[in-house]
Amino acid sequence: MNTKFSLVFIILVSSLITGCAQIRKVTYPSNFVYLDHSLVQTTMLRISLAMRSVDETLMGGEPISDADQQLIKQRLSAIDELSDKLATGSLVTNHLVIDDHIDDFKREVRNAIRTANASPPNFYAAGHRGLGDKQFLRRTPETAELRNLKKSPELSIEIRHKYYLSL
User: Fold this and answer.
1) Strands 92-93 and 32-33
2) Is the pLDDT assigned to residue 140 strictly greater than 60?
3) Which residues on neighbouring strands pair with residue 92, listed in sequence order?
4) What's the average model confidence in pLDDT over 1-13?
């Protein structure tokens, strides 16, 4: 009796799981991609921190050293790679603001990389008036933690340690 009950229970649970997967096919369009909230939050924070690092390097007021130039180029490449995680091409996601602006953002990141790698290098497109002026990064709740960085040095250290080390 116990074996029959277990078998019926397993069949019932597997049918329920399969049914849920079939419902998703009906309720979402075929060109829909679900971006997990934690992926978006982590990616947006990493992009914001990399952009902040670039801005801090450029705002020093001194000529940019070779080491700083390499750091800026690394950060721009990291931003490009991170934004690939959010870009879905012509597919629709559950983050409409990102869908509307990610292609323009990626185009500007690639322009900043191109001008940074030019001879002589030009970092204007990478600075605050270039990439740092992107409104869609400010409008997402995923970047809300970054607004408090200046208010709380402890939070700043915690966020940098959590998200920045992987850049």
Assistant:
1) parallel
2) no
3) 32
4) 72
Q: What is the DSSP-derived secondary structure letter of residue 93?
A: E
Kindly list the domain boundaries of the chain, sorted by start residue: 1-30, 36-164
In 3D space, the residue among 34, 159, 29 whose CA is nearest the CA of residue 96 turns out to be 34
Average pLDDT rounded to a whole number, residues 158-162: 56
